[in-house]
Specification:
- With about 525 residues, the chain is an alpha/beta fold.
- It has 16 helices and eight strands.
- Strands 1, 4, 5, 6, 7 and 8 form a six-stranded mixed beta sheet that branches.
- Strand 5, helix 8 and strand 6 form a beta-alpha-beta unit.
- Helix 2 crosses helix 8 and helix 8 crosses helix 9.
- It comes from Streptomyces endophytica.
- This is Secreted protein.
Length: about 525
């Protein structure tokens, strides 16, 4: 979590760290002037780019095939405002209560110069290291990281980390600014804290407000925190290589991060070491798969922009929703149900994925099981016994009735539309030996067999024991043959109660034989 205003008191400032020129982040190259100009045109004139956080980068890395999110995040477009202007406002975000609770808890963890935080770091990750001294040369250093702009803060952070490694003592960096390459464009992230150990090891600290009860926490929330920490570790790796080259000391970024949470139901901090090697490898691989922003921007039609043309109040968009939808639809998307918890445009992409009949709208698991079948039309055609290749011949297109909502798919979630005068597209030819096709036809056969067995007519003997419901009037249970006769309700008129005749009285209802319901007085 980010607490911009909660800064530690200055304990020690390095001698040569008072001024630093704002330049490109270590290990990162600034985008060319032409790319910066193109990204500025995509945002709109005078619109400041929206910065990314580690949570957004982790969500982007989890869906590397989404060119739409890669371009919008790379250009710094406000996806929340864009979704609202498109008529699909997002429900994604964090409550103000969670923000306040997180800020209060983080400020408590970092009080007294971070003494409690350093104690947790030594206890969980480095118990053999010497403890920091309260004062003197062995005290914890907390360099000032303030600078102009994210580029200046990232350069200042790189310089402070290099100096801390050369000094060989304990250093606590509160909210350092790091740069990570995302699809060829630098994105700036801000971890809660980074601790430099005396032996040159760097540790990322992630502070969360969800509780850790009896030493364990919510697995989903811990996993999300691990994915965020993996982004921070990736951003620190080029800085560590640069610091090792300048200081001559071995520098390593620890692949175990410290997760600090409230203990049980109190506000006291406790911590646990979290191994993020799996999340680190996944995030590194997924970020490498992202298409570069300049390639996506070069494929857009001339004049494409996501400018909302805000009114004088700076909040109300004046651009027509149809123009925005056309601009957004020019970039392909890869929708998945998981996007609903991580992307502001998820509702918009889901609506169009359903209109296209894309199987991605059913989930990544279903998409993987269906193989080369890309639309629901193709799935239904392949499941039919008389579908393509059912006689063992090579698959041929199977004519399937086309609905108004189904349109040709050019990528899950894309907004492409076809000319109404264009010929109707049939599902693609299906390989009859495809495991997905065989599984679909086997499932269809089993379903038909089950429905056929359920429709078997009953024998006359079995029908005697099934209570029959008359066409009109209330249901009356059958009376055994040796019992007294009970007047039945005629089909052509209401039941008229008759006085009891002389003879045996009607037996009372028992637990095994329910009472015979009589019509209400107003029905007589």
């Amino acid at each position: 979590m980010s607490v911009p205003d909660a800064r530690l008191r200055q304990v020690n400032v390095f001698r040569d760290s008072r001024a630093v020129a704002a330049g490109p982040p270590v290990g990162q190259a600034l985008p060319s002037s032409s790319l910066r100009q193109r990204l500025s045109e995509l945002r709109g004139p005078g619109v400041r780019p929206r910065s990314l956080d580690a949570r957004a980068l982790a969500a982007l890395a989890a869906n590397p095939g989404c060119r739409r999110r890669a371009l919008l995040d790379g250009a710094g477009v406000d996806k929340g405002a864009l979704a609202g202007a498109l008529g699909s406002p997002t429900g994604y975000g964090q409550s103000q209560f969670a923000f306040v609770r997180g800020n209060v808890f983080e400020a408590r963890v970092k009080t007294d110069g971070g003494a409690e935080l350093l104690r947790l770091v030594r206890e969980r990750l480095d118990p053999g290291s010497p403890p920091p001294e309260p004062e003197g040369p062995g005290a914890v250093a907390t360099p000032d990281l303030s600078a102009a702009g994210p580029e200046g803060r990232a350069a200042r952070t790189a310089l402070a980390l290099r100096e801390a490694t050369a000094a060989g003592g304990w250093t606590l960096l509160d909210h350092p600014m790091l740069a990570v390459d995302v699809a060829g464009s630098p994105a700036y992230v801000e971890p809660d804290a980074v601790v430099v150990h005396p032996d040159g090891i760097w540790t990322v600290v992630e502070i969360k407000s969800f509780p850790m009860i009896d030493g364990s926490a919510d697995a989903a929330k811990v996993g999300a925190a691990a994915r965020q920490a993996a982004v921070y570790v990736l951003a620190l790796e080029p800085v560590a290589a640069h610091a090792a080259a300048h200081t001559g000391r071995p520098v390593r970024v620890r692949d175990r991060v410290l997760l600090v949470c409230p203990k049980d139901f109190s506000n006291l901090p406790t911590a646990a070491a979290v191994d993020i090697r799996k999340q680190l490898a996944t995030t590194r691989r997924q970020l490498a798969r992202l298409t570069r922003v300049e390639e996506i921007a070069a494929a857009l039609p001339e004049g494409t922009t996501f400018d909302l043309r805000l009114a004088d109040d700076g909040k109300t968009p004046t651009r027509p929703a149809q123009e925005l939808a056309a601009a957004v639809g020019a970039v392909g998307a890869a929708y998945a149900p998981e996007c609903l918890a991580a992307c502001e445009l998820a509702f918009h992409c889901r609506k169009h994925a359903r209109q296209e009949g894309a199987v991605e709208a059913l989930g990544r698991g279903v998409r993987g099981e269906l193989g080369g079948l890309r639309t629901i039309e193709e799935v239904l055609a392949a499941a039919r016994p008389e579908g393509p290749g059912s006689d063992g011949s090579p698959g041929t297109p199977c004519e399937v009735p086309r609905t108004e909502a189904a349109v040709p798919s050019v990528g899950a979630g894309s907004d492409a539309r076809t000319d109404p005068d264009a010929p109707t597209r049939s599902p693609a030819p299906t390989n009859p030996h495809d495991p997905a096709v065989l599984a679909l036809r086997r499932a269809a056969a089993l379903r038909a067999e089950a429905l056929a067995s359920a429709a078997v007519p009953q024998t006359p003997t079995e029908a005697l024991h099934v209570p029959q419901t008359p066409t009109e009037g209330p249901s009356v249970p059958q009376i055994p043959a040796d019992g007294p006769s009970v007047p039945q309700t005629p089909a052509d008129g209401p039941y008229v109660p008759q006085p009891p005749a002389e003879g045996p009285s009607l037996p009372r209802a028992t637990a095994e034989e329910p009472a015979v319901p009589h019509p209400r007085a107003e029905e007589a």
